[in-house]
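We modelled the chain as a single entity of 193 amino acids. Its sequence is:
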Amino acid sequence: MDLIPVLGFLIARGRCRYCGVKISPAYLSMEITLAVMSIMLLLLLGPTTQYLMLMILLTGLAVAAVSDLGTLIIPDKIVIVLAFMAAPFYLTGDIKLWYSITGAVTGFGAMILPGLVTKQFPGGGDIKLIGVIGLYLGPYGVAFALLISVFTGLLIQKLVVKDKEQFPFAPYLFAGVVGTLMALPGQIMLLGG
């Protein structure tokens, strides 16, 4: 029962069955979001390699988001695994190599260029993660996802968190990708196809 998404959390009443420690509701919200996105993408794309590719991206981003929420760290292992998991989709033609590289450069550039002006850079994990998102979504998709992420992050930080210098950005990147997939499910998400 422990490993069944959502149901395992509810049966254990949000606590570890073995030690009784409370489990963050962030896990539950990510599981529910992934389930909803899986159904939506399956209805949109069917059981295709594109569906599999986007679910790999979303799952990796969910793991990064939960890690960032808890520790303010996005482990390099998550970013590396996501980058390597994109490779088979070059062979299937679901990701065009030039589109993917352009997306990664767009993502990196959008995170680094403002820092060159303001001398304040985001965390290294955020920069790497947006580059990997660019590998999957291409330049248009990553730009749209980043816009949603920044606006969502700024709004929530201003209205809810306030006065916090460091904040986890991966959850907002996750939200940005989810928003992008819901808003632009057509050609942009088909990676230059």
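As a brief sanity check on the tokenised model: The radius of gyration is 17 Å. Residues 114 and 121 are 8 Å apart (CA to CA).
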